[in-house]
Design goal:
With 226 residues, the chain is mainly alpha-helical. It has one domain. The chain has eight helices and four strands, in the order H-H-H-E-E-H-E-E-H-H-H-H. The strands form two sheets. It has a two-stranded antiparallel ribbon with strand order 1-2. Strands 3-4 form a two-stranded antiparallel sheet.
Length: 226
């Protein structure tokens, strides 16, 4: 089976994912120092789980050959950042965040603090996970700055990126509170890419494996990338 997207798409998504993996690595280093100073065995064990997740994500990143491969990488980054939030909660003697998804506006912000009702400037309301800073902006009737990605010579919000960012997004957001990816992104170019490949009778919650199969059998790849 030929890949859906070619080398150019893969490298574009790789550059975006570098930011996410770097944010994970930076937090991992900071917390490693804090855990070492704490002498807390439970925090050390939790940190070990996060380190293993990082190593798997890094290995997947290095081995990725197609844009589709980054779904597993971003899923690992999202899981690892949440594991680090558990380490931080252990050190601070606070509760582990309830939301396992990253911030919708920028996954590099790490795990969301809570779900919020958000209405984009041109679109309908939807519920999205947000970090504390972005949640406060929305609740103050302000618009958070979206994560930008570089596509060719353009810099665009990720949700206006090409369809080959579908795997990158689906790794982070398989579903949110029963809301499928195409609903989270309704009104945006990436949401349209999900919607166009939605089976008419599919369940609302779509797994990454289903998304991968649907894209592989449902579209053709860009000849310019070969």
């Amino acid at each position: 089976m030929l890949p859906l997207f070619g080398a150019k798409a893969c490298e574009t998504v790789r550059v975006a994912t570098t930011t996410d993996l770097g944010a994970f690595a930076d937090e991992l280093v900071d917390l490693t120092h804090a855990v070492d100073r704490s002498g807390d065995d439970r925090a050390q064990a939790l940190l070990g789980e996060a380190i293993a997740t990082f190593q798997r994500a890094e290995g997947g990143f290095d081995a990725a050959e197609h844009a589709e491969d980054f779904a597993a990488v971003t899923a690992g980054i999202g899981r690892g950042r949440y594991q680090l939030s558990a380490v931080r909660a252990r050190l601070n003697r606070t509760s582990v965040p309830e939301q396992k998804q990253p911030c919708f506006f920028d996954p590099a912000h790490g795990p969301a603090e809570r779900l919020i009702a958000w209405t984009p400037p041109k679109g309908d309301p939807r519920t999205v996970p947000a970090c504390a800073a972005d949640a406060e902006l929305v609740e103050a009737d302000e618009q958070p700055s979206p994560r930008n990605v570089v596509v060719g010579e353009d810099v665009v919000p990720y949700w206006d990126g090409p369809d080959y960012f579908v795997p990158w997004f689906s790794g982070y957001f398989e579903s949110v509170d029963g809301c499928a990816p195409e609903d989270l992104l309704a009104g945006f170019a990436l949401g349209q890419a999900f919607a166009e490949n939605q089976r008419p009778q599919a369940d609302l919650v779509v797994t990454r494996e289903e998304l991968r199969d649907r894209w592989l059998f449902g579209s053709s790849y860009d000849d310019e990338d070969e």
